[in-house]
Amino acid sequence: MDRAPGLSVRLKLTLSYAGLVMLAGGLLLVTVWVFLLRYVPEVIDNPQLPGPNRSSLPVPGWFVPNRSDLLRAFGPRAAAVLAFLLIFGVLGGWILAGRMLAPLARITNATRVAADGSLSHRIRMEGRKDEFRELSDAFDSMLAQLEANVAEQQRFAANASHELRTPLAISRTLLDVARNDPTHDPGELIERLRAVN
């Protein structure tokens, strides 16, 4: 059966999971960045320098990063982490969505089998009593009721057919007897046919 154009539920769930992972990762990186920048001074307080130059230069031989140094070091790594989270979110989301929707595939297959006329097929889903299990149990009970109704209709049709065949057979016999015996009274034949029918 062809599906209308658009995103499948599995793809929608995958994109939702990946988006949530990316959002959480982005918020974590922003939080780390904000707290990291809060404790990095713009200028270094150098007690070895006299007067107004005291806070403008670091101690010789020491490397003390400023905010732009941290941004150059942190930016590419943060982008790499976000790329990893995106790939992990999409792949993990696809697998997770597939596992979550597997019971729905079983229910869909059962409905197709029932649509082809096999009402004896049951899903009999095992496991926790979640929404999919409730749906499959309801579908199984619906199939059981349909199967019982169809069997009852078939019994009724067989009984009705039998009940209709008996008077027809008697009528046919009376007509055959009357045809073979031309001296037979037609009024008596009509009365017998009326009594049978």
Question: What descriptors fit this protein?
Answer:
single chain; 4 helices; 2 domains; 197 residues; mainly alpha; 71% helix
Describe this structure in words.
The chain is an all-alpha fold and 197 residues long. The chain has two domains: 9-118, no CATH class; 119-197. 71% of the residues lie in helices and 0% in strands. It is rod-shaped. The model has no long low-confidence stretch (mean pLDDT 82).
In total, the number of strands is: 0
Mean pLDDT: 82
Largest sheet: none
Distance between the termini: 51 Å
What is the global morphology?
rod-shaped
Question: Helix and strand succession?
Answer: HHHH
Computed structural class:
mainly alpha
Number of domains: 2
Please mark out the parts with pLDDT under 50 across 5 or more consecutive residues, or reply none.
none
The helix content is over 70%
CA radius of gyration is: 42 Å
Q: How much β-strand is present in the residues? A: under 5%
Please, how many helices?
Answer: 4
Spell out the blueprint of helices and strands.
Layout: H1 9-38, H2 67-115, H3 131-180, H4 186-196
Short description:
The chain has 197 residues and is mostly helical. Helices cover 71% and strands 0% of the residues.
